[in-house]
Amino acid sequence: MYISKSFIPILKNIPSEAKIKSHQLMLRVGMIKQSSAGIYSWLPLGLKVMKKIEQIVREEQNKIGAQEILMPTIQSSDIWKESGRYEDYGEEMLRIKDRQNREMLYGPTNEELVTDIFRASVKSYKSLPQLLYHIQWKFRDEIRPRFGIMRCREFYMKDAYSFDINDEEALFSYNKFFLSYLKTFKRLDLKAIPMAADTGPIGGNLSHEFIILAETGESKIFTDKRIFEVDSSGSKLEKKSLEDLRSKFEKFYSVTDEKFDKAEFETKVIEKNRLITKGIEVGHIFYFGDKYSKPMDGSVDLPGGKKDFVKMGSYGIGVSRLVGAIIEAKYDAKKEVMKWPISVAPYDISIIPMINKNDKSSLEKANKINLELEKNNIETLIDDTEENFSSKIKKMNLIGIPHQIIIGKQTENDSIEFKEAGEMSQKLKLSEIIKIIKKQKEEN
Amino acid sequence: MYISKSFIPILKNIPSEAKIKSHQLMLRVGMIKQSSAGIYSWLPLGLKVMKKIEQIVREEQNKIGAQEILMPTIQSSDIWKESGRYEDYGEEMLRIKDRQNREMLYGPTNEELVTDIFRASVKSYKSLPQLLYHIQWKFRDEIRPRFGIMRCREFYMKDAYSFDINDEEALFSYNKFFLSYLKTFKRLDLKAIPMAADTGPIGGNLSHEFIILAETGESKIFTDKRIFEVDSSGSKLEKKSLEDLRSKFEKFYSVTDEKFDKAEFETKVIEKNRLITKGIEVGHIFYFGDKYSKPMDGSVDLPGGKKDFVKMGSYGIGVSRLVGAIIEAKYDAKKEVMKWPISVAPYDISIIPMINKNDKSSLEKANKINLELEKNNIETLIDDTEENFSSKIKKMNLIGIPHQIIIGKQTENDSIEFKEAGEMSQKLKLSEIIKIIKKQKEEN
Description:
globular; Rossmann fold; five-stranded mixed sheet; 2 domains; 444 residues; homodimer; alpha+beta
């Protein structure tokens, strides 16, 4: 793809309304454009990244046996009155009257709607467990939307729901998502730590937030720093293995501020291991038993002939927020260098030829190299503009494509200037460059 | 995938509220579930089909150089006031007040929002043409939603927008979409005919609807039946070739009822070629020049230093509606046999073993066959239930997976009972079955 043909509107300066680096960078390289307060359009560069994140989230949901559905954005208030949350939810719920004057709303979450689907379809314990997820736009009418897509009003989220016959099975489902989330964030090259958390308007008494460390995070966290060393790589989708995994994490005190207890923290964590810092919530899982199935009559026939309400959990990942979270984690704002993990990078490699009006030979070389890369399914962005070389490099460093090829007059196929974004360059053969990128892609 | 593990809630009877066969079938095999009037959830079977349609639509947009963006569902009324459509649009627009009492709306279409993106980003004729598309949920508050997802309120749509320097270039863009649509519908195994159409609330004076014939269609069409024989296969993405393509179609009188003129029809079409019938609109393209760019100041610098408003068109495909349209075209309601085109089928093949409580050997054979199919990337749904054989066949015929394997006690690998849904069966080797399916998939 030529940069001159692509819709990547670059801004020269950092917009003053952007206070954190993800918001700054996303506006600057044209990943998003604000359309109204807390509501954004995704431009090609931003959408490419978000779609790749979405696909990784989807694959990891499928791996634990969750099935994808898609619930609508607009819901009737009726089911929220059944669960009792219609009044509780407050002003963050966008309430709507349709032309027939019916009370509708833009779903901020989907416990009610999925329970309605479940109760209409599943009648017997034999059909359990059921794990259903969807990836859909949500709306929360924040009073003060801020930080770009990190705390906006319309956002893209994966939410999953589990239905089980009893607490034991329900906790097995909960733990499946627990592992799935660790794997998902790992593929995004993020170190996300599960922390005991408050359940808020979702309800229940068991909940974990998955937090990545970031100075600009809105969650205050109190943790034993040894939790960052927990190894989850050997865990399997079996009850015992998943329980062990949970225990390995829960051995270390680690909470968000709603759950913080100073005395407990100081008793359980010796001073040198204490870490008080900030983080960004990228996932949140809840177990709430029959909180929704009971008022909404989500019951199944049991083996003996009796009925019981199913035990439910819900499991969210902020797909659009993750785009910002990855920037917060990976963008060096001082050097002005972003480097996307290869798994979600908008392109795998950029080619930066030195071009001037009278000599396009570098561009021709770029085209040849691009042909080879395409054959190997390596996605390329070529800067075919006549801007001066240093501003081209600066622009590409912001766009954050993880690899760069620089082409001058002397460049030949057996000695190409190749670098990781922001690193020193080296001279490599094209075949070696292809090998490096393919290997990285396979590992992710 | 085992049918017992999948979330496919089959209904025994045809729901009385469903009046047309797509609505009946989609409810019956659990593709969708109504959540409120004109609003549906997509269950796994329906979502699989819709996602495959979406991907084909996306690929064909990319092929003509359109770039994918994603605009939000909730828009500010401000831009609609700029274009002058806020009052015009009427009650089909879902109007919303947020907690700050700002006038918002759920986008029924996106001409205003995309013009706002364009004017903020593109300043020079050198960046033209720009073709931008997105695939997003829309809402139109129909007074009488009906026919399931064919005329619902919340629907999934691809809409694209073109921006050009003058009429000639704009018509080139229009014609690119014209060809792209023919190719898209062909990959869905639909014969969609472009017909001169009214422009309605979008505006402009050039417009085509793409219509597929169906008794249950809501569009009345008047056409020269020879239009069905027009061959578009040799057309290229070049001005002249695309103009020729348009001419080949426009030689034959073919209009929807808003454009119908009896005298003209009878003059231009001899009696034996006249066809008056009904159809389903699956796509609609518009050219409207500066209708939006002028009031919203979407202008670019021209070569000589002057400025001019860009010339725009818009291009819609009803992605969710296409799921229903394909059923209307492919479902034989008398025989109760559906057969999805392989390009969008939820699974490529079903395996139906005869199982009873005491003998699971057929299921074991099914599992072995499934392993081989999986190795060849062939997606399989296995009916592992103990229902009687004829009700299994009936169910699979409704689900509409295009190929079936039937396994009895005598089945061996070198002689498997294989059939296209609804056809006679034949005995084939597994390797031959794999070859047939792979060939069909490659061709689509």
